[in-house]
Amino acid sequence: MANSNLPRRIIKETQRLLSEPAPGISASPSEENMRYFNVMILGPTQSPYEVYHINRSYV
Predict the structure, then answer these.
(1) pTM for this one?
(2) Can you give the CATH number for the domain in which 15 is found?
(3) Edge to edge, what strands does the sheet with 51-57 contain?
(4) % of residues, the chain, pLDDT over 70
(5) Is the residue at 28 inside a domain?
(6) Which residues have a Cβ under 8 Å from the Cβ of 53 and sit 6 or more positions away?
(7) Residue 2 maps to a domain
């Protein structure tokens, strides 16, 4: 996480997210731009939300 243009809060929350992942949720910053996250949420099996992918950005 070497992006000095990011607000300190985003850096701190990203470090926490990576060190203390929430159950059923996988989130990681993009290697190209630390403001973009790739998120995967695992929901109930055999439901439309069994695997849900999100690309999220922080501007």
Answers:
(1) 0.65
(2) 3.10.110.10
(3) 25-29, 36-42, 51-57
(4) 90
(5) yes
(6) 38, 39, 40
(7) no
Q: How far apart are the first and last CA of the chain?
A: 17
pLDDT digits (tens, 9 = 90+) for 23-37: 888 888 888 888 888
Question: Identity (one letter) of the amino acid at 35?
Answer: R
Distances (CA, A) of 55 to 16, 17, 24, 37, 46: 19, 16, 16, 6, 23
Tens of pLDDT, residue by residue over 46-57, are: 988 888 887 877
* 30 touches 6 (CB < 8 A): no
Judged by DSSP in three states, 43 sits in coil
